[in-house]
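Need Probable membrane transporter protein's 3D structure for a figure. Predict it.
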Amino acid sequence: MSLIFLYLALGALAGVLAGLLGIGGGLVIVPMLTFAFTGQGFAHDHILHLALGTSLASILFTSLSSVRSHHQRGGVAWPVVLKITPGILVGTFVGAWVASQLSTNFLKGFFAVFLFYVGTQMLLGIKPKPNREIPGAPGMFGAGGVIGIFSSLVGIGGGTLSVPFLVWHNTAMRNAIGTSAAIGFPIAVAGTMGYLLNGWGMSDLPPYSLGYIQGTALAGIVSASVCTAPLGAKLAHTLPVDKLKRIFALLLYVVAVRMIWSAF
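Structure prediction for Probable membrane transporter protein:
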């Protein structure tokens, strides 16, 4: 029961932060699951893979409600989603395979570097200036592949990468966020399948795991995050979000240092 409450609390926190700060829940879920799985004594070689796979599986559920909300407000550029999805699917699936070949310590270091990158973006308020049009099919396939690979390697829905990409290509911020939410679903589908298949049959996985997806953690996270994400969105209209983003950026730095420390 204590584990269920732990995962529910993690899901609730991830949902609020996702709605409040407009970040992917994976930025919270992956490091917290890493620490939780380590504390439970899971096999070290599988800890990061389980955290990444479980994070992407949770996005399968949470992204649907987000996409529906943005679609109702006309915030999703569906032609862009259709053009980038093939590259997203290929890149994410390949990224999951690559991650399965890498050690837990390497993935910890890679994720920590990514946290430093996101934290710096938040701390400095870095936003790309729009200066070009959406590329054609080959360009979108390539962009989708890159976004998919990195999203799979760090267990996120891709918003940290796809929103700047879309804004850089003259997409209004409101539509970039909504379109990125829609892009998160194929990332979650391909990533979930990739981590499930690449972890299938591995020894020393914890009970209730399907490949690199830990079922108990997934159930708790999804149950809570789906309920608390709307609360976070509501709070975004009343709280000083810019100040909160800077505080959260410092927290990301702390988590990154902690992950690097644990790797050595």
